[in-house]
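Researcher: Here's my situation. A collaborator sent me these components and asked whether they could plausibly form a single complex. I don't have experimental data yet, so a predicted model of the whole assembly would be a useful starting point for our discussion.
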Amino acid sequence: MASVAAQTVGVVAALTVGYLFLSRKGVPKPPGPRGLPVVGNLFDMPTGKDWEVYARMSETYGPVMSLTVGPTTIIVLSTIEKVKDFFEKRGANFCSRPSVPMMDIMEWSRSFGLLRAGPDLTKTRKMFYQEFGTTALAETFFPQELDQAKTFIELVAETPENLVDHCFQHSGALILRILYGYKALKQNDPVIAKANNVIKIFSDASSPGSFYVNALPFLNKLPDWFPTAFKRKAKEWTPLYLDLVDDPLGTTYRSLADGTAEDSFCAKWLRREMTTEELNLMRYGAGGTLGGGADTTAITLYCFYLLMAMHPEIHERVQAEVDSVCGRDRLPNFTDKAHLPYLQAVIKEVVRTHPAVPLAIPHTSLEDDIIDGYFIPKGSVVFGNLWQIAHDPVAYPNPFKFDPDRFLGDSPQRDPYDYVFGIGRRYCPGRLLAHASIFITFAMSLSVFNIGLAKDENGEPIVPSIDSQPGIVSMLAKYPLNITPRFSPEQLEVLLAA
Ligand code: HEM
C-alpha cells in the first residue's frame, strides 16, 4: 500500500475548493505545527513510518492535534480515549472515508473499505455482520480455517525459506475460501495472483505522486481526447477489480448449481432472494474484503515467526504449553484454545507489537464539529494512531519489550483486541475470523516447528528486528529464519491427514 502520508496528500489535495479556516467563530482548531502560507504543513507530513512521526509530534501538541495541507485539516488522535470520543461517541459524524479521485474514476471506491457514509455502507456492514459478526457465526468457518492452516504448515515444512510467500498465500487462500468457497491452488493460484495485482494497483493508483488527478481533481473534467496518463490507465485498470471479484464468484455460482457449494459468505447470500442492488453490494463488499483481510493476517503471522525466533525463552515456554495440552500425536484444534492461556497472551503481545494497520484507515467528518473545545471542520481527515496506543508507556510499562506476561495475572494490561481492529462504526468486520486464523496457525506452527535464528556465511546469528514498513497496511522487513520441523515427513503427513 502507498505510504499513508502519500495517500493523505492525495486525499487532501482532492478537496481543493475551499478556504482554510484557522478557526470558526473564535473556536481554535487543535494544536499542531505551524504551517506555511497556502501549503500549510505539507512539508511536515511524514514520509516514512507516519505513526512514529505522529507519536513524536503528539509529545508537543497533545492527544488531539491538527495539521493542514492546502484546504484540508488532518486530525491525529493518539490515545484510546480520544479515538473513542471521535469514532464512537461522535461516530455518526466521523464514520465516512475521504475521497481518492483515481479510485472514484475507476469506480473502485465502491469497495468496502473506501465506502463513504450512506445506505450502501450501512447495508454492506450489515451483510457482513450477518455472516461474520458473532463468535458463533465465525465458528461456522472453523473447518475452512483448520484445513487452510494445515496447507500452510505443509508449505512451510516443504520450503521454510519461502515463509513470507507462504504467509501471503495462506491468508489469500483462506479469505477466498471464506468469501467464495474458492479452493486456491497450493501455489501459484491465478486468483491470488490477480488479487495481488489489484492490491498493488490500488496502492499505486491512490498515491498522489503517481497521478496528478489525485492532487488536482478538476483534471478529470478535461475532454477525453486530451492525452492524460490517468485516463488511459484508469480505462485499463477499471475492469480489473470486477474481474477479480467475479472470477471466484463464478466458482460459487457453479458449485451452487451442481450442489457442491460449501458455506461461504457469497454462497450463503446467493441462496437467499437478493435484489440487484444487494447482489452488487455483495460483489463489491467481498472484493474489498479480499484486500482488507489478506495482507493484514499474513503480516501478523510473519510477525509471530520473527518474534518467536527473537525470543527463544518465550518460544520454548509457549511451545511447552501447546505440547502439554495437545500432546505430540495430534495437531492443535480450536477446542484447545481455552486451555492455552499463555498462547493467548502471546497472540495479544504479537498484535500489540505490530498492529498491521497502524493508523487505521483514514476517517472523514461529514459536518463541522466542536470537540474538547476545538473546532473540527467538515471534511477533516482523521487518523487514530493505533500504533501509539499499543506503545503507550502508561498502559504498557516498558512498551517495546516483548512480554506476553503483561496480559496474565490478576491485573492484566489493556487488551489490544480492544483497538488493533479499529474503534467505532468502521471497526474491522473480519476481526473474529482473523482471530481464529491467528490462533490456529500460531498453535499449529508451534506444534510442528522449532523457529530459530538463521546464520550468516560466517556462522553468526542473523538477529531480526520488528522493522515496520510504510503503508496503510504495514509490512515488516524480511529476515531469513531457521525453521525446522519437529516431525519426520511421514509423521507430519499422518498428523496433517487426521
Ligand atoms: C490481523 C488481522 C487484521 C487486522 C489487524 C485488521 C485491522 C483493521 C483495521 C484497523 C481496520 C480499519 C478500522 C477503521 O477504519 O477504523 C480494518 C478494516 C477492515 N477490515 Fe480488517 N483487519 C484484519 C483482518 C481482516 C480480515 C481477516 C478481514 C476479512 C475477512 C478484514 C476486513 C476488513 C474490512 C472489509 C475493513 C473495512 C471496513 C470498513 O471500512 O467499514 N480484516 N481492519
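Model: Some features of this prediction you could bring to your collaborator: The domain at 4-497 is CATH 1.10.630.10 (Cytochrome p450). Residues 276-310 form the longest helix (35 residues).
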